[in-house]
Amino acid sequence: MNHKLIAPSLLAADFGNLEREMEWFNRSEADWLHLDVMDGVFVPNISFGFPVMQHVARLTNKPLDVHLMIVQPEKFIGEVRDLGAAVMNVHQETCPHLYRTVQQIHEAGMKAAVSLCPATPVSTLEDIIQDVDVVMLMTVEPGFGGQKFIEHSLDKVRSLRQMIDARGAHALIEVDGGVNRQTAPLLSAAGVDVFVTGSAVFGAADPAAEVTLLKQLVNG
Ligand code: DX5
Ligand code: ZN
């Protein structure tokens, strides 16, 4: 049963050939398209914004997972909804009123994902875990693709799994950063449900085949 999901990250795509990239993506077994938005403030890099995402959204029918590495992401709930996004993914570190932001994302008809940087403990989500649809653990510092996976993220996944189960919550666990053939099976065993993968897939000779392989590995 293929119940675990693969979400290729567009950050690693060839931006000069988005049509061609979306062609393999659409015929692959990829489940979600992960879109990394950066503001040069919360993270030390700038990626792409709404005009590029609107273009990409027209090129696929698969669910969009919009990862906002920006300050004040709540300002853009309407724009993300208008993209047709399935998941709006905000950082705990940029949302002082996270409960309200999660509610507003739900009111806009999207699933709410909350991301944690490597140094932010999972315990910060204890009082909101029942309200969120997805918790995404950054397994590298956000801002760049192609970084090395932080090994002790595996313990963090296990703690989060325990917290979700202990509270009878239903949030999916997503990971982002350094996910590849080596790390994906370990993460899956620790309890991850959704795997974002940038360079490992877009850098492969046959990206669609790499998605199939990763999907088999995580679904054991
Ligand atoms: C990093 C981004 C990731 C990135 C992952 O800040 O949030 O989604 O694309 O890239 P890889 O899989 O290359 O680590
Ligand atoms: Zn991301």
Quickly list its features.
8 helices; globular; 33% helix; 220 residues; binds zinc ion; binds D-xylitol-5-phosphate; TIM Barrel; alpha/beta
Give a quick precis of the structure.
The protein has 220 residues and is of the alpha/beta class. It contains eight helices and eight strands; from the N terminus they run E-H-E-H-E-H-E-H-E-E-H-E-H-E-H-H.
Topology:
Layout: E1 5-8, H1 18-27, E2 33-38, H2 50-57, E3 64-69, H3 77-83, E4 87-91, H4 98-107, E5 111-116, E6 134-138, H5 153-166, E7 172-176, H6 183-190, E8 194-197, H7 199-202, H8 207-218
Parallel strand pairs: 1-8, 2-3, 3-4, 4-5, 5-6, 6-7, 7-8
Zinc ion binds at residues 9, 34, 36, 67, 176, 196.
Structural commentary:
The protein has 220 residues and is of the alpha/beta class. It has one domain: Alpha-Beta Barrel (TIM Barrel). The chain has an eight-stranded parallel β-sheet. 33% of the residues lie in helices and 19% in strands. It has helices spanning 18-27, 50-57, 77-83, 98-107, 153-166, 183-190, 199-202, 207-218, and strands spanning 5-8, 33-38, 64-69, 87-91, 111-116, 134-138, 172-176, 194-197. The longest helix has 14 residues, at 153-166. The radius of gyration is 16 Å and the shape is globular. Bound molecules: D-xylitol-5-phosphate (DX5) and zinc ion. D-xylitol-5-phosphate binds next to β2, β8 and α7.
